[in-house]
Amino acid sequence: DDVRYVQNYSSGATGFSLADDLYRHGHDVTCVAGVTTAVQPAWLPLVIKAPQPDRMLKELLALANDDIDAWVHAAAVLDYVVESPAEGKIASQQGSLSVNLVESQKHIMALQERCKDAIRIGFKLESGIKQKDLIYRATAQIEKAGMTAVVANRLEDLHDATKPRGYLVDAYGSHFVLENEEKMCEAVRTFIER
């Protein structure tokens, strides 16, 4: 049978949490969601389903035609996609199969020019690096992609209650500890509302 896509373990919980917080504080919210396992708040007015990275980018580019004040790039878009997906069924018992992965287009870069006048909050998840390197990489993403700020975190810290949820990094390299999900939502909202 067809393999429809390669998927990561991201649940969509962060994006829905941010959308819920912004909506509850009076903001007009449109979500473009990939494949998610987190429960989508039923009261969100517009959630566009886009399971593949290229489809998600098309939806985002279409939205960029509107006058959007703020973009929150929370989706964990695949860094690599299948180069040449086979169509139809591949017969079994033919030995090993190889799947060649190629880098996917970075959505934040593709949207950079179209969203340059808007507030843009990015996300940077890393693994196996020190906090100072995490902050450095977040600052580099701000500069490269034209972000206003980035929420940076480490994979190994996400399920450790003794570690912060992440760090909000601004264009000056200043960073602020986000103790939990609520503080993260509050910090993102503050950047949007200022």
List keywords for this structure.
9 strands; Rossmann fold; 194 residues; alpha/beta; five-stranded mixed sheet
Notes on the protein architecture:
The chain is an alpha/beta fold and 194 residues long. The chain has one domain (13-82, 100-193): Rossmann fold (3-Layer(aba) Sandwich). Helices cover 28% and strands 21% of the residues. A five-stranded mixed sheet has the order 3-6-7-8-9, with helices on both faces. The longest helix is centred in the last third of the chain and has 15 residues, at 131-145. The radius of gyration is 18 Å and the shape is globular. The mean pLDDT is 92.
**Beta-strand fraction estimate:** 15-25%
Structure classification: alpha/beta
Main β-sheet: number of strands, strand sense, barrel status?
A: 5 strands, mixed
Number of domains: 1
Instruction: Compute the average pLDDT.
Output: 92
Query: Remind me, CATH topology?
Result: Rossmann fold
The dominant shape is globular
Give Rg in angstroms: 18 Å
Helix content: 25-40%
Name of the CATH homologous superfamily: CoaB-like
In CATH, what is the class?
Answer: Alpha Beta
Number of helices: 5
